[in-house]
Amino acid sequence: MKSEKKLIGAGILAAITASICCVTPVLALIAGTSGIASTFSWIAPLRPYLIALTVLVLGFAWYQKLKLQKEIDCACETDEKPKFFQSKTFLGIVSVFAIAMLAFPYYSGIFYSNPEKQIIVVDQLDLKTIEFKISGMTCAGCEEHIKHEVHQLNGIVSAKASYENENAIIEFDSSKTNVAEIELAISATGYNVIGKKEN
Fold first, then answer.
1. Helix (H, G, I), strand (E, B), or coil: what is residue 4?
2. Which end of the chain has fewer CB atoms < 10 Å from its terminal CB, N or C?
3. In terms of DSSP H, where are the helices of the chain?
4. Domain that holds residue 132
């Protein structure tokens, strides 16, 4: 059934597209090209519509698969087993994959290592805090990507990022790193630093 294959394909495509803005940072981290992380952030406002489209398409595919077939009186054999790509098993696999893709922003943080570093601050006067205003973050995965990159620098005591507040608050030892290096690390992720304020 070509229409069923098209429905399944549309469901998968909508599910992947709904989460591509959050999948891209993880793929960029794995590939070592973190600068492309924010490439698909423009899709984030469309996410609710893509989620609805995924649910509708897969719901209709399940309806088509489960609806009762009308009995047709004929002398032909109809016990032919459907092909795997037309089976309920395949539709189930596709549905589970779609759900996993739609939920990706909520568990994407597991892909980022949390480097535990022992920071020794020699002089408390060297301890500084700065807030960066950042555009382009759309989910918790974006936050984790920024924190991961900043923690690669020496002298970072803590890094907190929030896509909701569009900011990152970094505490650092100014004798080991500086504001310019931190800003460069954030910019290397592909997100845009649009302002900064020292606290």
1. helix
2. C
3. 2-31, 47-66, 88-102, 104-107, 140-150, 179-187
4. 112-198
